[in-house]
TrEMBL record:
InterPro entries: Endo/Exo/Phosphatase_dom_1 (IPR051675), Hlx-hairpin-Hlx_DNA-bd_motif (IPR003583), RuvA_2-like (IPR010994). Residues 173-192, 204-223 form the Helix-hairpin-helix DNA-binding motif class domain. It holds the Pfam family HHH_3. The chain crosses the membrane at residues 12-32. This is Helix-hairpin-helix domain-containing protein. Keywords: Membrane, Transmembrane, Transmembrane helix.
Length: 295
């Protein structure tokens, strides 16, 4: 027993140091704040904050679900396909009624007419009709140009084709003989004619000259006509490419795209006048545009 309790000075110092460390740690455990040693299980939960967090997570989940739903973009109901009608919620019978109506080359021009033909319910119509997009010529019809006449034109005997002067060689002085055409207007007519190598293609191009009213144009056409039209390249409306269409006056890439899209839906145009039903088509310039097209 005596051998177990005999220590050297170095061993005795080591024992005292170990006891000092144990006592210090014990004091820290006794006197330090309880939260320092408490486990996560003892942390009080803020139920209000948790509920707020859950509500935020749920709202984000609903937003994500809503974003994943198929979106409806504005569309022309005349061109609803079977798949499009199915995604909208139409029955096969309703889709077939619309296709049968369109097969007669007729057009749906309002939401009420769409319901009358397809026999969809009021609730369905209320959901999808805000997305209907009809051409501008349906929603905002332009007033048709009236046939302008005046006592001056009526008092003159209409000239035959042979009696009229070729508009492509008419001089300014000859043009000024027409009532309403002065020095400035005659200069504008000749300046417009000179822009093209070969002059006018047709009498309708007079409407392109700035300052000429419809009445004055009719008076000019009573004495002048295009007898030697400028040679131009015409394109087949049903085969022309987009790059060919944009070479035509007043047709840009957007209009050319709509023409080709409409042509594809129709399996080809049946007449040049079908262009008037193309989206964003410049209707007022139709008489000029059709000079460059044929079927």
């Amino acid at each position: 027993m005596k051998s177990h309790f005999q220590f050297s000075n170095q061993q005795r110092n080591g024992i005292f140091l170990l006891l000092a460390i144990i006592i210090c740690l014990q004091c820290v455990y006794w006197f330090a704040p309880n939260s320092f040693f408490s486990s996560n299980d003892d942390i009080p939960l803020d139920t209000i904050e948790i509920e707020k967090f859950k509500a935020e997570v749920d709202s984000l989940r609903l937003v994500e679900i809503e974003n994943k739903k198929p979106k409806i973009y504005p569309f022309n109901p005349n061109f609803i396909t079977d798949y499009k009608g199915y995604t909208l919620g139409m029955t096969n019978e309703q889709i077939d009624r619309l296709h049968k109506f369109r097969a007669t080359n007729q057009w749906v021009n309002s939401a009420k007419e769409f319901q009358k033909i397809t026999k969809v319910s009021d609730s369905f119509l209320a959901v999808v009709s805000p997305y209907f997009k009809f051409p501008d010529w349906v929603t905002n019809p332009k007033p048709k140009f009236q046939d302008y006449s005046n006592t001056y034109a009526n008092s003159k005997t209409p000239k035959t084709y042979e009696q009229k002067i070729d508009l492509n060689i008419a001089s300014a002085s000859q043009l000024q003989k027409v009532y309403g055409v002065g020095e400035k207007l005659s200069e504008r007519i000749i300046k417009y004619r000179s822009k093209f190598n070969g002059g006018f293609i047709s009498d309708v191009q007079l409407t392109e000259v700035y300052g000429l009213s419809p009445e004055v144009v009719e008076r000019i056409k009573n004495d002048f006509t295009v007898k030697t039209p400028r040679a131009i390249k015409t394109y087949n409306l049903n085969t022309a490419s987009r790059d060919e269409l944009v070479t035509i006056q007043y047709i840009d890439y957007e209009v050319a795209h709509h023409i080709i899209e409409e042509r594809t839906l129709r399996d080809g145009f049946k007449s040049i006048e079908d262009l008037l039903k193309v989206e964003d088509f410049p209707i007022k310039k139709f008489d000029i545009i059709k000079l460059y097209l044929h079927l």
